[in-house]
Amino acid sequence: MHRIPLYCILPPDLLDRLARTGTEEVRNAALDTLALDQLFRLTRVESAARSGGRTARPVTFARIGGQPQRTIYDQGHTTTQTPRKPVRTEGQRASRDKSVNQAYDGLGATYTYYWAVFQRDSIDGQGMPLLGLVHYGRNYDNAFWDNAGHMFFGDGDGRILTDTTAGLDVIGHELTHGVTQHEANLVYSGQSGALNESISDVFGVQVKQYALKQNVTTADWLIGADIVGSALKPALRSMKAPGQANPHDTQPADMDHYVPGGDVHINSGIPNHAFYVVATTLGGNAWDAAGPIWYDTVCDPTLRPDATFQQFAGLTLRHAQIRYGATSTQADGVRAGWDAVKVTL
Amino acid sequence: MRVEVIRSGGLAGVRLHGVFDTGELPADAAARADAWLRSLAAGGSSSPGPPAHPDAFQYHMRVLDQDQGRSVTLNESDVPDSLRELVNAAVARGEVVDGRSS
User: How far is A265 from chain B (nearest CA, A)?
Assistant: First the structure.
């Protein structure tokens, strides 16, 4: 029999009620979830007791996850900040416009990654609709998440960037800014800003690897290879070799080359490379262990909005130990990652 | 009026550097841009607040000729309509420079 996972955003009393009054399918799902939920809550309480963090999150509404709710809008080359013309909604067949379909597929790939790996139901964990606004501006060489539920896509000018809907990693990067906003709200300057950027690259690259079924060895670990224009070929950033993605790339790969006052997209090379070393040291798929360790860290309520690289690194080690054990190969892998970029744990 | 424009940020995180003479713009656009830039305090500089969202652009503009010493840094969302054509023209011609600092 197929069982619907309800997971743990529902409070136990609601689950109790569903178990008593729901259809058989809902009842079974609720019972499964109650059993799991108790385990999660115990783990969370233990974790919180160690770290002094909060133990519960507010529930705004209940939804059975697993399905994105996508709508793509055509902004008609304007810079209007609100959605204009809806051109494809969830379940509708493909448009004749390639950008519309690429945006739709990229939002879907990102939803699928977060749901399949973490059972996270969209950006806010509560089923937030994913709205993609394509053809924003004229020759606009950027894409961004506006902190208010919209992802904007520029067509690029061909020189700096090309059509930004073509980058699965870029779409994953932008939507992850939304996840970070909800979970950690890292201040967008200094080291916390570089962490914010790095987290977007770390999960953006996994969205692409997951969709293309690439493991840590077959993946290229580049960011933006599918959307760079002529001036920035072959890619915007390299997590494998920060500073070597294109002739203008000045990302540092370790703390010896940290740029004081540097742009958040520059120093992000350091935590990016740490993740790359952890994932490749552990082998397999990036989302097997390295991804979950990073995800637990982003969702840790003790991660401060002004976190430094060192504080973030310390939390990744703690979560590797909680998930896999204090003397696990995963914990050793995390140590190796931060050691490689000269961040002291 | 000759103006240096540096665009930084964006998801690419690269810096574009361009110099543009407002005289190359249509007369009404040039007049609007010149008036806006002249209204800046000489020798003053402002630092913008935090960007409205991640991966936004920032524009740094500096007057190079008769009104030297006037400069301003604006978040993408704060660029006034008076400067829009100047910024777009300067960026279209801008060269990528290494993106070390913010």
Answer: 5
What is the three-state SS of A71-91?
A: EEEECCCCCCCCCCEEEEECC
Strand partners, B3: B20, B63
Q: Name residue B71's beta-bridge partners.
A: B62
pLDDT tens-digit series, residues A65-83: 899 999 999 999 999 999 9
Torsion sign, CA atoms A326, A327, A333, A339: positive
B53: chain A residues, CB-CB within 8 Å: 144-147, 177
Residue A161 tokens, joined: 């960037």
ipTM: 0.92
pLDDT per residue over B9-66, tens digit each?
Answer: 999 999 999 999 999 999 999 999 999 999 887 776 667 888 999 999 999 999 998 7
Q: pTM score, two decimals?
A: 0.86
**Are A188 and B54 inside 8 Å of each other by CB?**
yes
The helix or strand, by DSSP H or E, that contains position B59, with its residue range, turns out to be strand B57-63
Minimal Cα–Cα distance from B14 to chain A, Å?
Answer: 8
pLDDT tens track for A254-280: 999 999 999 999 999 999 999 999 999
β pairing state of A237-238 and B57-63:
unpaired
**According to the model, what pLDDT value does residue A52 have?**
39
DSSP character string of A275-313? HHHHHHHH-S-TTTTHHHHHHHHHT-TTS-TT--HHHHH
pLDDT at A34 over 60: no
Candidates A142, A191, A257, partner chain B, best to mutate (most B CBs within 10 A): A142
Pairs across A and B, CB distance < 8 A: 91
Task: Please state, as a whole number, how many other Cβ atoms lie within 10 Å of the Cβ of residue A138.
Answer: 12
The predicted structure's pLDDT at residue A33: 59
Contact residues for A201 (Cβ-Cβ < 8 A; gap 6+): A169, A173, A223, A237, A239, A268, A272
Beta bridge partners of A71: A89, A131
Average pLDDT value for chain A: 89
Which run of H or of E encompasses A50? helix A24-51
